[in-house]
Amino acid sequence: MGRKPCCSKEEGLNRGAWTAIEDQILIDYINLHGEGKWRTLPKAAGLKRCGKSCRLRWLNYLRPDIKRGNITLDEEDLIIRLHNLLGNRWSLIAGRLPGRTDNEIKNYWHSVLSKRLLSSSQVKEANRNDDKINVIDAKLEHETALESESSDGSFTLPSSDEEINASFNFRMDFEIGEISNGSEGFASDFTQLCGYDFTDMNAEICEYGKYGKNDCCEAMVENDYVELEANNFNLDSDFGFLDAFS
DNA sequence: AAACCTTGCAACCGCAAGCGA
DNA sequence: CTCGCTTGCGGTTGCAAGGTT
């Protein structure tokens, strides 16, 4: 590779793809001594690798709880929503997807989702010029486009590109600032539709907002508020009102 | 069959945050 | 407070495999 080597101060270290033997040495060592102390781990384990490389290999590949490949539609849907909310905060997104690593999600985003969303954004932009629709109508339209109801009342996630694009055409068209200021009529309507209690959300904002915008956003993610079908949240613009807390 | 192109993904790099001395 | 070290994160690279011409 045409780049400066990792941990260039230390010579004689292996680089590039890991061998099965190296993997086994690392697994055995961590099973015995636990994670951490990456700087000293290679020497202690007898690996000719830098600590960074060992850490990365363990976290992204060797950990026993890692799921690999076959990202489900549910996971994909969650990745898209979290990315809309948090941007390129891959580690935070990965934290909401058990068994998935930040690297895998980042790769999936760049190789699959970003291309798909790029094409859907053109359709989305056209819809920005449409008249605003009220929340109830929007929700019904969204459900019609996104979900197909089966005989037992359950729903399925979108499977075709058309359906996924349709989900992106849906916009909440509301100011989240209104929620924080206690727009009770709106909140009760939306709570009824989505099953989320904006009273709790307000409390969450007040509690975590005082520590700063990022803490508040992360707290909201932790508490599943991102499950709202608000696909177009943006950390800086839509949560801008939280700046007042910082 | 061979050359070229595209895609997926593991791995590397630089930077910044956290933490202890 | 500052300095140095370690760890974690996001961006980027380059290899290998599969697809296309």
TrEMBL record:
It holds the Pfam family Myb_DNA-binding. The keyword Transport does not apply. It is found in: Nucleus. The keyword Flavoprotein does not apply. One of its GO terms (molecular function) is DNA binding. Keywords: DNA-binding, Nucleus, Repeat. Residues 10-62, 63-113 form the Myb-like domain. This is Uncharacterized protein. It comes from the Eukaryota. CDD domains: SANT. GO terms for cellular component: nucleus. Residues 10-62, 63-117 form the HTH myb-type domain.
